[in-house]
Amino acid sequence: MNFFELIQTRRSVRAYTSQMVEPEKIEAILSAAKAAPSAGNLQAYEILVVLDAATRRDLGHAALGQEFLARAPVALVFFAHPNRSAAKYHQRGTVLYSVQDATIACAYAQLAATALGLGTVWVGAFDDDAVVKVLGTKAGWRPVAILPIGYPSESPAATPRRGLDDLVHHHDR
After folding, report:
1. How would CATH label the architecture of 24-151?
2. Which of 8, 17, 72, 128 could form a disulfide with 148 if both were Cys (CB 3.0 to 4.6 A apart)?
3. β-strands 142-150, 45-50: how paired?
């Protein structure tokens, strides 16, 4: 499938089979995330790979009751690492660029997982402090997204999108 077909076929999957995701597929997804562009190439983000079922269950609770997180065999948690951006970009690096870095890396991971025949859903609704507590992460890391990954046991339909004429605006002088 070409890149544009990949984008059109990606869906938010919340139901997974019990089949484990092969380590080489996890590595390929992480390699895709690592290839994402970042501000000043500082790569101001961290990725935590969560394979433990009990931890994924606790993440589901931290994600405001999104229990499907426990049923995905893998969860990647993307963190902004503001201090990596702060030295070069100061406040803007702390509050924006590190978050953008983590976001772009997660988007690359999501598309890579789709290309490998896996299902994902972007989880952005969670209690930051609860996620940090569940994972025991280092001070200063800010959770940005949780990406459960697994073999899908559902095939969600495409959701409606705004038309380009509504979404895109041209600026002419």
Report:
1. 3-Layer(aba) Sandwich (3.40)
2. 72
3. unpaired
